[in-house]
Amino acid sequence: MEVAESLKFIAAAIMIGLGAAGTGVGFGILGGKLLEGSARQPEMAGRIFVNMILTAALVEGVALFAVVVGLLGFNNA
User: Tens of pLDDT along 36-54?
Assistant: First the structure.
């Protein structure tokens, strides 16, 4: 039974870690594209920034979802 408990810890850590890593990559790409768009059309920088904030909220939601699923799976297994 002790092995099963250890595997639950490992599985939860992997789920949360992969969710965090994916979010980090997503934010990096998002920030890079924001800078590219602002450099090409400086007059649109404000509008691009607003769209980036909305997209960042959605990306962060995916990370929180991964954490919740990892913790719920850990508690219910």
Answer: 999 999 999 999 999 999 9
